[in-house]
Amino acid sequence: MECHVSQQAGAFTLQASLLLPAECHWLGLFGPSGAGKSTLLRALAGLERTAEVNGQWGEVVLPDARQSVLVSAQTPLFPAISVAQNLHLVASHNQQSAAQTDWAIDNCECRQLLSKMPGALSGGELQRVKLARALLANPTLLLLDESFSAMDSALKQRIQWRLRYEWSGSARVIMVSHDINDMIRCCQQVALISAGSVVSQGDIATILGGQHALAQPDKPGEQTLPLASVLKGPFYAQGDAGIQFKVGQTIVNSSDAAVRDNTNQIAMLVPASQVVLSQGDETSLSLPNCLTGRVTAIESINDLQHKVSLLCADQQLIAAVDTVILAQMGLHSGDTVHAHFASRFSL
Ligand SMILES: Nc1ncnc2c1ncn2[C@@H]1O[C@H](COP(=O)(O)OP(=O)(O)OP(=O)(O)O)[C@@H](O)[C@H]1O
């Protein structure tokens, strides 16, 4: 299943084709500012009168103006009534039971906000109320446009977990976020948007290891996709320094930014620029993690760097290695190396 969207908004042209497999329920849209993500969501919601949208996702025929709900900075609450009245209005209109209403209020952490007026809410509080209201509308398609951006990390993780794994609603979800960990936490598929087109789509590990991911850190003010791997494995232990999980027989130490799913699998984002390779004594570096793997591919990124792909246990780990260092190491496909990396990264 797929969807084609075209829209002219001033000088901006959106020509996007999304793959929408029936088995995928959460799709992420990632891309730089101005790429067209919000325009695409609005078109899918049937809110762009001049957009041409044709597609289907499972049982949802697109565009879906009737049963889709868009949550964005531009979707206001009713300003003259309280949070409780805003929520109960939508709940009663959509025949939500008291239990469903309580679930949305409690799980979007709005209980303490009910008596407040919308104008008195902070940015993160407003996002929580908008999310609760969206759930109470019982959507078939939920479109989240940076709907967690003002929440602190712990709050965001709690609410995303509940929406992803505990919410009984049957909506398919498309989520726009600039935070890659949101994509890892929630999305089965991610579409990378650039200049109004979908340039790549797949699971997040494929996108982060693909040709559009850059080994160099972001230029200031410009969001780029880092060349990175997503290591996954079963939860092992919770320590003072964070979570431990296992990749094969090796214990990996990760900060609390690691993502845990409902089967107790941990996922950890490892930027390729932060992986240090060694061939000798694996304890010679002071970094807390060391995985041993076999080199599966070496590709040139640019004049200065190469992408070295490793297979560690059954997982791909990518390192961006300085070309001079690579030559000194004399590394070839099939060689065994040690990959060292930290437990916490700032992206
Ligand atoms: N109604 C409009 N008239 C003219 N230009 C528009 C209109 N709506 C959007 N655009 C332009 O379309 C482009 C894409 O905007 P859009 O908001 O979809 O980007 P985005 O990827 O969501 O960006 P961000 O991450 O910054 O929110 C921008 O250059 C924007 O200025």
TrEMBL record:
Keywords: ATP-binding, Nucleotide-binding, Transport
Keyword presence, Methyltransferase: no
Highest taxon of the lineage: Bacteria
Domain annotation ABC transporter: ranges: 3-220
Alphabetical list of Pfam families matching this protein: ABC_tran
SMART domains per record: AAA
Coiled coil: none
SUPFAM superfamilies per the UniProt record, alphabetical: MOP-like (SSF50331), P-loop containing nucleoside triphosphate hydrolases (SSF52540)
Signal peptide stretch: none
Molecular function via GO: ATP binding
Keyword Transmembrane helix part of the UniProt annotation: no
Family matches, as PANTHER family: SPERMIDINE/PUTRESCINE IMPORT ATP-BINDING PROTEIN POTA, SPERMIDINE_PUTRESCINE IMPORT ATP-BINDING PROTEIN POTA
Name the record gives this protein: ATP-binding cassette domain-containing protein
Organism per entry: Alteromonas gilva
Lineage of source species: Bacteria, Pseudomonadati, Pseudomonadota, Gammaproteobacteria, Alteromonadales
